[in-house]
Amino acid sequence: MLTQVKTSLFEYPKYWAECYGTAPFLPMSRSEMDTLGWDSCDIILVTGDAYVDHPSFGMAIIGRMLESQGFRVGIIAQPAWHTKDAFMELGQPNLFFGVTAGNMDSMINRYTAERRMRHDDAYTPNDEGGKRPDRAVAAYTQRCKEAYKGVPVIIGGIEASLRRIAHYDYWTDKVRQSVLFDSKADILVYGNAERPLIEIAHRIANGEEVKNITDVRGSAFLANQVLPNWKGIDSRSIDKPGKIDPIISPYQEITSTDCSENSAEADAAAKNTDTDITKTAQVIELTPHRAEQHKNKSWADKKKPWETTYINLPTFEQVRDNKVLYAHASRIFHQEVNPTSAKPLVQRHGSRLIWLNPPATPLTESEMDGVFGLPYARVPHPSYGDAKIPAYDMIKTSVNIMRGCFGGCTFCSITEHEGRIIQSRSQESILNEIKDIQLKVPGFTGVISDLGGPTANMYQLNCKSEKAEATCRKPSCVWPTICGHLDTDHTPTIELYRAARKIPGIKKVLIASGVRYDLAIQDPEYVKELATHHVGGYLKIAPEHTEEGPLNSMMKPGMGSYDKFKEMFDHYSKLAGKKQYLIPYFISAHPGTTDRDMVNLALWLKSNDFKLDQVQNFYPSPLANATTLYHTEIDSLRNVNKNSKSVAVPKGTIQRRLHKAILRYHDPANWPMLRQAFTKMGLGKTLIGSKPGCLVPNETRGEKEQQHYKNNGKGKNNAKGNKTTFGKKPATTKTAYGKKPSTSSAAEKSKQGLTRFSENQFDDRKPKQPFGKKKK
Questions:
Q1: Which of helix, strand or coil describes residue 596?
Q2: DSSP string covering 240-276, please?
Q3: What pLDDT, on a 0 to 100 scale, did the predictor assign at position 550?
Q4: In the prediction, which pLDDT does 712 show?
Q5: For 5-14, what is each residue's pLDDT tens digit?
Q6: Angle at Cα 393 formed by Cα 388 and Cα 397, nearest 5°?
Q7: DSSP summary character for residue 480
Q8: How far is the C-alpha of 415 from the C-alpha of 410, rounded, in Å?
Q9: What is residue 319's three-state secondary structure?
Q10: Of 643 and 36, the one with more pLDDT
């Protein structure tokens, strides 16, 4: 059985080291420990980011949370990973090492969407690149194990969360095993992880061995066999949400449900227990579910199979070699994310297995207030001196008001990391943080740069039905349409904005987080408040595309919602006497996108007079739904089988660059590529020319010559200045009359083509004396 939430985050008995009090900054050196009077650290956190004591930096939150429990916490930030020396800087921790790659996945941090290495890092002093390794979680963990053998290592953060089971790795273009195997860590905690990590820390402090901590929600670990007293089911018996569960549809009344269909399907599944895909000797028990077992029973009395049942996913070897099974495993993984009713997932890797417990229980409002009310210094550690940390400069005057996202966009990993359930802070807590910014942030000008989170307008929006929320397995609450159970009242957000503006000394409160416009149009009063008071001229929104195919693959709303929001926004901006504009963001080369889709998007951009400065190509991050589409080219958003519908996926450098170039049709550097592509698509007469509907102009003589030079100057008057005919090499052994060419410099110069200028035509023709001076 899994542990249930019995203790609030701040109700655990304090560890004995509480007597040392609160540190102004968590120590990063022995000298700081000496100043604090510490002889050792109880817990040492290793991170790939610079240490900024601010609640927008995950390691600062975890460090301060552990400190609030009485533990002495040290931080090793961006250590040199080539040897173990940097990992011994603070000595041996009494309890465990905590390891994270930082706020970003280390591979996404170090490489572009085209797999080119970046030379900057916003989370490093002076934006310096190269301060963290590839796959930082595995590299750091191995060094911790090397430095102090026998000390437990717990991994977490976004990189570990998105690699907790077998996953497609874009950078090597193959399926990799769980990060637990690569790193050899003892436990993985996923999500924001305050709740599981605090529980694990206290249990280790109380003398419990880490290998015996297997019942914590939000954690994963390696095992040789499944845990006792659990019953397993084959994931292939789950075609769609609800088939194997003795629960009714969350959208119907308990007393009126007919589960005979579910019962029949479960009975059929019970006859096929010998098809367990894991091929292990573990006995799998399938219990038929009868409608009578749960009719007319209250929620408290109903049986909850997820408390005693786990799901066997296809093995690592199977998902590595079979794309259909990979798509199937991804679908099951994304269904089992409800903290109330998700089942543990088991995936065998060779002779061992990963046991993945269900997500941790979301934090309550008072717990969220406690997390963000900890004594953060709100500035970088003093050891960095005057060095600028771009990521800190970006968020130093912003306030995080909530966590989680129920949008379910397939290209985004927020749901896989933070979950769908919105965890909001109280208005009082948020206003107190604004006042804290006024006191602590150097050079504060009175402008709050953002009140937001993963999205700007999901604050305190939750499911109105407790029963529906407890059992729902839908990947999104707003796609394809907004769920009837979802509360879309933006009144709490409006009241928060108004209260923030009233704080003395606050001149402006801006909204920089992306606005979910399909939700905003449900409450016109919110759009009015936003346009009137909280936009600094431009507002970011993310339609991502205009065409139905890509939008369905992204699980994004159609352009009708965008048009309605724009109409509202323009109307209220005009009423406020302001000229304000929407800045739409689009993704190129997303799975489900064809070349024609990109052309239609470009035509929409031109008709609306948009010229995009920057375009982001789709970046396949581990475990995201869109990454599964990219890897398998199978529509895993619906039931998966060998006959599943295929998805168009732009792959390869040429096609991905083309899609990006189409969105930047106005850039002359892209015109040669676009002309060639449009001609090949049969759209040359429609899209090339000077007509209003054309995207690129006809090729000019100057462009032809420039392209000619780029093609190594093959043809007349090439880059070397030699006269040749197109497609022929310049003569080097004989002239046109059969004579050998002269090797003298004068003869070579006589062969220079002067009818047109070449790049180096006059390099060796410098005047013999300064102009205007006569020979003596």
A1: helix
A2: STTSSSS---TTS-GGG---HHHHHHHHHHHTTGGG-
A3: 96
A4: 63
A5: 668 999 999 9
A6: 150
A7: S
A8: 9
A9: helix
A10: 36
Given the structure tokens 């207030």, which residue do they identify?
369
Q: Are strands 423-424 and 73-77 parallel, antiparallel or unpaired?
A: unpaired
The three-class DSSP label of residue 321 is: helix
Query: What is the end-to-end Cα distance of the chain in Å, rounded?
Result: 104
pLDDT at residue 313, as a whole number: 95
Q: Which two tokens stand for residue 664?
A: 């930047």
Which residues, other chains included, contact 386 with Cβ-Cβ below 8 Å and sequence gap of 6+? none
- Phi/psi at 49 (5° precision): -100, 160
| Side-by-side strand order, sheet with 352-356 | 73-77, 43-47, 96-99, 153-155, 187-189, 219-223, 352-356, 345-349, 309-312, 231-234
Measured CA angle at 25 (ends 10, 404), to 5 deg: 50
CA angle 426, 428, 433 (to 5 degrees): 100
Lowest-confidence pick of 228-242, 356-370, 661-675, 704-718? 704-718
pLDDT at 505 over 90: yes
pLDDT interval class at 713 (50, 70, 90): low
Q: How far apart are CA 352 and CA 224, in angstroms?
A: 5
Q: What's the pLDDT score for residue 270? A: 43
Entry field: residues in the chain: 776
Tokens 């003596």 found at: 776
Distance CA 636, CA 639 (A): 7
Q: Which two tokens stand for residue 451?
A: 């009140």
Q: What six digits make up the tokens of 402? A: 């909530």
The pLDDT confidence band at residue 718, using thresholds 50, 70 and 90, is very low
Positive or negative torsion for Cα 146, 147, 152, 157: negative
Sheet with 581-588: list strands edge to edge.
538-544, 581-588, 616-617
